[in-house]
Amino acid sequence: MTDLDGLAERFARLQSAARRDANPGCAVRKRRLDALGRLLRDNAEAIADAVWRDFGQRSPAETRLLELFPSHEAIRHARRRLRGWMRPQRRGVSLWFQPGRAEVRYQPLGAVGIVAPWNYPVYLAVGPLVAALAAGNRAMVKMSEFTPATGRLFAELISQHFAADEVTVVEGDASVAHAFSQLPFDHLLFTGSTAVGRHVMRAAAENLTPVTLELGGKSPAIIGPGANFEKAVERIVVGKCLNAGQTCIAPDYVLVCAGKEQAFIDGARRVVAACYPELRTTPDYTAIVDDRHYRRLIGYVEEARAQGAEIVELAPGVTADAAARRLPPLALLKADGGMRVMQDEIFGPLLPVVSYRDLDDAIAFVNARPRPLALYYFDTDRRSIDRVLDETVSGGVTINDTILHIAQDDLPFGGVGPSGMGRYHGFEGFQTFSAKKGVFRQSRLNGIGLFKPPYGALFERLIRILLR
Prior knowledge:
15 helices, 6-stranded mixed sheet, Aldehyde Dehydrogenase, Chain A, domain 1
C-alpha cells in the first residue's frame, strides 16, 4: 500500500479479526512465528539485495549479521519460551484474604501498530513483530519511505506468508505515517527520531493509544583509567563504523583521559585500516542512506571546523564521495557543546573525541546531557564499573564492548526520557504487547462476610486489628 486509500479499512479488518479470535493458543502463535522465520530464511538474499539498493551500498554481510541473525534469534527465543510466558503467574495473597488465590493472566491486546525506521528496516520491523505475534496479536507494520525497495519486498513477502487479517504491511510517505499513527491501535510501537516520536505520541493520544517509543540520542563511550586501551579503541571504532554509524545505539562520542587523545586517533586509524583496507571500493562499508542525511553530516563537519574543531581523517587520503554518498570515518577533536555535532544525534561516521580529567568528570559530563539510549564503559576495575552503572542513567549498557546488549534476547531494550519509553525484546516484549489481567479467586471458606453492614461491635474489634 503506497497511499492513504484503504488504510482505515485494512485496520478495521485487522481489528475485527482480533476481536473474533481474542486469545489464540500457543500452537497458533508458534505457527505465525514459524511463518515469519521461513519468510526471512527463504528470502535472505533478496532481502540483502533490497537493502543494498535502498542505501546505494549496504554491506550484505552486515545485513545478514545485524538484521537477519538477530531476527532469527528473536524468533527462536520467543518460540522456546512461549508456553512459559503464556502461563498465568501466581501472585501472593496477604494473610487477611487467604485461602484465596491471586494470579496475573497475559492476554493479547488485539490490533497493534509498528512503525519501522530506515536504518535497520528488517530487524526493526521484525523484532517488534516477533513480540506482537508471541503475545497473540494481529499487527500492521508501517515501513519507512526512505527504504522503498525493502518496504515493497517485505510487504510482498508478508502477504505470501500471512493472511491479510493477521499481519499487513503499509508503505507510503510522511502523510501515511501520520494517518497510521492516528489509527486506534491497541498499542503502537515507534522506532525513530525523538522529534518524530513527539508527533507520534501526540497523534496516538487522541485515541488514548498506549505507545512504546524507541528513540535515540547521544550514546557515550567512556574509556576508563583501567581499560585495555587498544581493545577499547577497536570495539568503539568497529561499533561506530557498522552501517556507517547509522545505528541508534552507535557510540555517538567517546570520552578519553586527558592526554590520550592522540593515542585514540592512532589506534582508530589502525582499526579502520585493518577493517577497510580498500575503503574507497570495499562493499563492507555502507553508504549514507540519502542525499539529505549526507548533506546533514557534511554540515556538521563544516560547522565544527569553522568553530575551531580539528577534523581528523581516520582513513587518511580517502575523501568523501558525494555522488556515491560514501563518507569515510572522521574524528573530531576540540568539539564543544555549542556545535550541532555535540547536540544532535549524529547517525553517521563522525566521532567526537572529548577528554576528561577523572571518572567524576566523565560521569558529570554524561549526566549533564539528556539520558542516552545506550552507554558503553571500558575498564577492568569492578568498583569503577559499578560507579558508572550506579551513577548514570541510560536505556542499556554494554561493558567492555559496544552494541551487544541489544542482541541479548533476555534483556529488555528501550530508552529513558528523550531516548524513549517502554521496553521490548524477549519477555518484556511479550509483556508490552499483552494485557496483564489481575485475577483473584475467592475460596469457598472465607471471612469476608464479617465485613459487611450493619457494622457493629465485632466489626470494630476486627478493624482495630487490621489497622494496628
